[in-house]
Amino acid sequence: MTARRIDGTALSKTIRSEVAQRAAALTARGCKPGLAVVLVGEDPASQVYVRNKIKACQEHGLHSVFEKYDATLSEADLLARIDALNRDPAIHGILVQMPLPKHINPHRVIESISTTKDVDGYSTLSAGELMTGLPGFRPCTPYGCMKLIETTGVDLRGKHAVVIGRSNTVGKPMALLLLQANATVTVCHSATVNIAHHTRQADVIVAAVGRRNTVTADMVKPGAIVIDVGMNRNDEGKLCGDVDFAGVSQVAGHITPVPGGVGPMTITMLLVNTIESAERTAAATV
Ligand code: NAP
What we know:
alpha/beta, Rossmann fold, 2 domains, 3-stranded parallel beta sheet, 11 strands
């Protein structure tokens, strides 16, 4: 079997053109959607991520504010900035780029973002909304993975999904979203004994570990959907995922590549969450 390649770049383009239309409609109603991106320090990877987020806003008709601070910024001053953004009516989403300098408590910062503007979906309240099935912001990467799975046309009801990785930002919310879609979900992690035993029974595998070749062809059931969240470098320094793409493509039914799979969807779902936030604000002010 040769797997169908799930094209995250193409799906992202389609969703982003809908985002641009929704942004234009909101702007015409006097409620231009706005995202604030806050960066503290000089982490090179964070600078690239932040630049891409701002660029995506600009290209799709969203207002964006970029606040960049020196690594010496105090936690109190950062919390004061977030408080101001919480009260700014032109801002519908606030994203604080992680990691923060060591002297700043990331939990305190995330919890300080108004739930109505928590477009990353990282706060305990947003996590609780996901857990209990209430409407709210879903963390962008797992939300994007669900959209990628949707393109396969496979109904997840009764399917067995295995998520490898249990981080608060990817693995756990991914498992909850799959559960909400009526899949039977197994979560594997670094203490799981014999991951292959689980993945071989899976109709859907989501790998979110950060280690090359975590999923190889012998671990995959023929026809399975394989979503690769991992971002690693191979020996040549090229970007690669957690899945052995060449090998697994021979067994799986559907597979996401790296790059061009989950990656583009993460920023796209950030735009979607920001638009949804602005639409809620606009609806509340009618
Ligand atoms: P993380 O916080 O480091 O979590 C990694 C998870 O993998 C942990 O739950 C860990 O288990 C588990 N793990 C580690 N080694 C393992 C092993 N040998 N077998 C099974 N499980 C193992 O990472 P993350 O933030 O969730 O991100 C995961 C990967 O996705 C990274 O490569 C990251 O760069 C990538 N990522 C990509 C995007 C994107 O937009 N494409 C977005 C976010 C993240 P324990 O909990 O037991 O330690």
